[in-house]
Every structure is written in C-alpha cells, then in structure tokens.
C-alpha cells in the first residue's frame, strides 16, 4: 500500500524521528524518578553487632578492684614516716604498735588502732606514767587540762587504771591521706616530747628499775621485714601499750 509522501512528511514534522523520541524519553523518566518528593532510602540493612564470646564481661560492667584493707593502708603510711619502726602484726591486724625515734634520739611508743565499727582510726601514746605516782594528783590534773587547751592535735586522758595517755582520732568516712596521717602522727609525737618532762616533774621521782630504763634508740626499720639482730625493746606490758579506752 503506497503512503502519501505529504502525509509522511507531516507526520515526521509532528512526531519527529523515532531515535529522537527514544533518546529524550529515557533520561526524562530517570530524572523524574530521582526528583520525586519522597526521600531516597537505602534498602541495605545494617549488620547486627558481633556476638560477644561466651563468658566475656562487658567493659562497663566489670567490677572495680577492691580497695586495700585499712590496716594495710595504715602500715604503708607508717613505713613512709622517717623514724618509725613497726612491731610484727598480732592476731588483730587493726592494732599496730609503733616505736618513733625523734631527731633528738628520744623514743615513744605510739599505738594505731582502727575500729571498723566506729569508722575511726585512733592514735595513742602511753609514755607519761600513772596518776598514783604523782606528788599531787590535783596539780597533775591541772597540768593535763592546761595542756589540752593548748594542744592543736590530741588530748590527754586518764584511763580506768589511772594511766596517763595522749590520743587523737581520725574519722574514716572520707579517705585518710598520707599527708593528713603523717601530720597527726608527728604532731602527737611532738606533744608527747613536749609534755613528758613536765608530767615527770609532777611525779614522785621514783628511781627507775633496770627494766624501766630507756634503751638506746634503734635505727628506723620495720620489724616485719627484718627482726634479726634487733635490740631488746623496753619491757612494757603489752596490755598497757595497746590499751584503747575508746574501743
């Protein structure tokens, strides 16, 4: 069937070449798909987290390391104070008997007692004698009261056996730093050094027995680490040295 050339030419003008239509309609549809108002979302799914090996504890739930027992912390502090010598620990590790040698060569027994129930660390020194040995008990008590008013650290007391002691307490609700502990320990020793001669003047002045005589000071060290060749310590009853009236 013959086509009218004029009609073919008219159709060509109106519709254009077939290749032109194909070239224009393909990209136009593609652009329309990307220019739609709906946000483009990826269909790729995120990978699930890797499974943790059995028995492994997450980092955030790991238990914190246990703090050192208080008596170990105190013994560590005491080893750092120059002039302090420790006795071997007894059955009760919370009672620590120490011997302090001052720069002038005087020695003092200072007992450190930790009370978990009261949350308190107490420092005690019994280096002053007994009220029964006083020339005048009233004068002695007046001296102790006057000393308590003047002391910045510690206070004197008389226990049930009439022994004279010097004490200071630290609360443990907040951590006790080494600096704070050292300050209290050395201040207590300084107070004992200052008032021991004054208290001795109030005593009857009995001559000391050989067992009560002072022994030469030993070099600072820890008896726990080396007890060989250690000089004999003064024979003071253990009950008297570690007695704690506040316990």
Plain-language structure description:
By secondary structure, this protein is α+β, with helices and mostly antiparallel strands. It has a single domain (70-242), classed as Yope Regulator, Chain: A, CATH 3.30.1460. It has 6 helices and 6 strands. A 6-stranded antiparallel β-sheet has the order 1-2-3-4-6-5. The N and C termini lie far apart (127 Å). Mean pLDDT is 74; it is low at 19-29, 31-35 and 212-247.
Q: What series of H and E elements makes up the topology?
A: HHHEEEEHEEHH
In CATH, the architecture is 2-Layer Sandwich
**What number is the mean pLDDT?**
74
Q: Strand order across the biggest sheet?
A: 1-2-3-4-6-5
Largest sheet: 6 strands, antiparallel
Helix content: 25-40%
Summarize the structure.
This protein has six helices and six strands; from the N terminus they run H-H-H-E-E-E-E-H-E-E-H-H.
Give short descriptive properties of this protein.
about 250 residues; alpha+beta; Yope Regulator, Chain: A; 6-stranded antiparallel β-sheet; 6 helices; about 15% strand; disordered C terminus
What is the strand and helix layout of this fold?
Elements: H1 5-15, H2 18-34, H3 70-80, E1 84-86, E2 95-101, E3 107-115, E4 120-125, H4 137-150, E5 155-158, E6 164-171, H5 178-201, H6 238-242
Antiparallel strand pairs: 1-2, 2-3, 3-4, 4-6, 5-6
């Amino acid at each position: 069937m013959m086509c009218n050339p004029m009609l073919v030419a008219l159709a060509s003008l109106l519709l254009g070449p077939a290749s032109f239509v194909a070239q224009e309609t393909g990209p136009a549809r593609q652009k329309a798909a990307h220019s739609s108002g709906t946000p483009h979302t990826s269909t790729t799914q995120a990978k699930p987290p890797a499974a943790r090996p059995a028995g492994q504890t997450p980092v955030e739930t790991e238990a914190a390391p246990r703090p050192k027992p208080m008596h170990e912390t105190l013994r560590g502090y005491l080893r750092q104070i120059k002039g302090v010598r420790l006795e071997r620990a007894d059955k009760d590790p919370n009672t620590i008997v120490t011997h302090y040698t001052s720069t002038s060569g005087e020695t003092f027994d200072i007992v450190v007692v930790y009370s978990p129930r009261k949350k308190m660390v107490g420092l005690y020194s019994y280096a002053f004698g007994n009220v029964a040995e006083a020339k005048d008990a009233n004068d002695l008590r007046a001296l102790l009261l006057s000393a308590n008013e003047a002391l910045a650290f510690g206070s004197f007391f008389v226990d049930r056996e009439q022994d004279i002691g010097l004490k200071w307490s630290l609360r443990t609700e907040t951590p006790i730093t080494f600096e704070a502990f050292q300050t209290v320990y050395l201040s207590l020793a300084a107070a004992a050094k200052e008032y021991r001669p004054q208290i001795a003047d109030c005593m009857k002045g009995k001559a000391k027995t050989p067992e009560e005589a002072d022994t030469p000071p030993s070099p600072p060290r820890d008896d726990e680490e080396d007890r060989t060749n250690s000089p004999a310590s003064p024979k003071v009853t253990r009950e008297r040295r570690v007695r704690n009236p506040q316990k």
